[in-house]
Amino acid sequence: EQGLQLLELGGSVEEDYIRIARCFEATRQRCCRLEQDGRRAREQLARVEAERAALEVKLKHARNQVEVEMKKRHRAEAELEKQERKLQLVLELLMREPWGNEALSREQCSVLSSLAGRHLGAALAPVRRSSAVDESCQSLLSHSDISYDRTEDDV
């Protein structure tokens, strides 16, 4: 538009050329700035994409680690329940046998009976969670926040 306006002006040819040259120079400088901005934006995009890829790798490793730890936890809980059942059977056997009561003092019998009552409920409980794991809502990432969907990993 400026070029058309300059041509319509009726000044000297030399002045018109100078004005046109200045317009071209301003346009060239603007193009250079835009090219530099584009280059910086592409570099920033490349850095962000590399960071995203690194974070995706970390996420994949974290998902795998969570899965491994959950399997370990389930195995440990199953082993705990198995050991509690064994202990309960031993306690019941000791309490039923007449020789067991004779060999044990009254204090030992009362401790065993209280243990038998306490462990019976624990052994029959459907699922028992370890108290060593903090599952409070104060955690930054709760297990409900973690997606175990593997469809993204294939992409």
UniProtKB/TrEMBL annotation:
Any single GO BP term: Rho protein signal transduction
Coiled-coil features, chain-numbered ranges: 38-97
Keywords for this protein: Coiled coil
Superkingdom to which the source organism belongs: Eukaryota
Example GO molecular function: GTPase activator activity
Any single Gene Ontology cellular-component annotation: spindle midzone
Protein name per its UniProtKB record: RGAP1 protein
Biological source species: Anthoscopus minutus
Gene coding for it: Racgap1_1
